[in-house]
Design goal:
The chain contains 10 helices and 15 strands. The protein is an alpha/beta fold and 306 residues long. It has 3 domains: 63 residues, ACT domain (Alpha-Beta Plaits), CATH 3.30.70; 144 residues, 3-Layer(aba) Sandwich (Rossmann fold), CATH 3.40.50; 79 residues, no CATH class. Strands 6-5-9-10-11 form a 5-stranded parallel β-sheet, covered by helices on one side. A 4-stranded antiparallel β-sheet has the order 2-3-1-4. The protein has a 4-stranded antiparallel β-sheet with strand order 12-13-15-14, covered by helices on one side. The longest helix has 27 residues. The two termini are 26 Å apart.
């Protein structure tokens, strides 16, 4: 599947939606505004040319969504002025323009927001995502002795941004230097290069995760489960949260109360007269939402073999 983003006027955008569904593709998300519609979707690679031709007919713009189907959490000390949150917001916007679902977290606390630590709640919340991106400061001693030790217990891929050039030995941490909490709009040449540097680090990390999934595939694609849940659970249509069923690399986040809808999610019918619990584990997120973790073939066997 090829993930893509369409941007254009609402004029005849439904033609594109119909074409994506006709060629066996999936609509991941659709954002409607007065003068613009943004659609993130996936289509078979052999049908990309048809989609490009349709996009031209309805005067829209089409680009690859390199981070579509990825849920990222961006972590900074705080959004206070003295922590210079402008790069934080600019980087998040860049990830979203590449198709990612991005959440944001600030961990500073205390008087003057001078204390930065990670609680058990924050650790659980961060580990629910596919990838965590941390923005640290400019002092090498502080980063090595305090900040990196704070995140060393996280069991997930991590991208760390800070100013000083240095080496990080942890295998799950990718370090990017030259980008920290300084005022920048990412409009100048040097600033854009720094933004591209961290974006490339995230893309490479996501690529490694996808390669691991190829070695031990999921029993069923997350995008297929997303479609079945949306079709069989009527409450999804009335959910006011953005992206009520969030696509992740190996799982889904369903933004419905766990206590109310967990049983309905577990009983969703999928292929071969099986239910969702045959292919995935359903659990409660820290915020009371529903997490669907898809099993690997090495543990669940071939889902389609009878």
């Amino acid at each position: 599947m090829e993930f893509m983003i369409y941007r254009g006027a609402p004029y005849k955008y439904d033609w594109l939606v119909d074409l994506v569904e006709d060629v066996g593709g999936f609509i991941i998300s659709k954002s409607m505004q007065t003068t613009e519609v943004v659609i993130i979707f996936a289509v078979p690679k052999e049908d990309v040319q048809k989609v490009e031709e349709m996009s031209g007919r309805i005067f829209g713009e089409l680009k690859s969504a390199l981070l579509a189907g990825t849920e990222i959490i961006m972590v900074s000390p705080s959004y206070a002025r003295h922590h210079a949150p402008m790069p934080h917001c600019g980087i998040i916007q860049n990830f979203r323009e590449n198709g990612a679902k991005v959440n944001s977290l600030a961990m500073a606390r205390g008087v003057g927001l001078e204390i930065c630590r990670m609680s058990a709640m924050e650790k659980s919340l961060i580990e629910e995502h596919d990838l965590a991106v941390f923005m640290f400061g400019s002092f090498e001693h502080c980063i090595k002795e305090y900040k990196l030790k704070m995140i060393e217990d996280l069991n997930m891929p991590i991208v760390v941004m800070a100013y000083p050039p240095m080496e990080v030995e942890k295998s799950n941490i990718t370090y990017v230097d030259g980008l920290t909490r300084i005022l920048m709009s990412f409009r100048k040449g040097d600033e854009q290069e720094r933004l591209n540097k961290v974006t490339q680090a995230v893309l490479e990390t996501v690529k490694k995760i996808k390669e691991e999934l190829k070695d031990d595939p999921l029993v069923v694609p997350p995008i297929y489960l997303k479609q079945e849940i949306e079709q069989q659970i009527p409450a999804i249509e009335t959910c006011l949260s953005p992206a009520p069923v969030t696509l992740k690399l190996d799982s889904l986040r369903i933004k419905l109360p766990y206590d109310t809808y967990a049983d309905d999610i577990k009983n969703v019918h999928i292929l071969n007269n099986k239910t969702l619990t045959d292919a995935a584990e359903v659990s409660r997120s820290y915020t009371g939402q529903i997490l669907v973790k898809i099993q690997r073939e090495s543990t669940a066997g071939s889902f389609f073999g009878e």
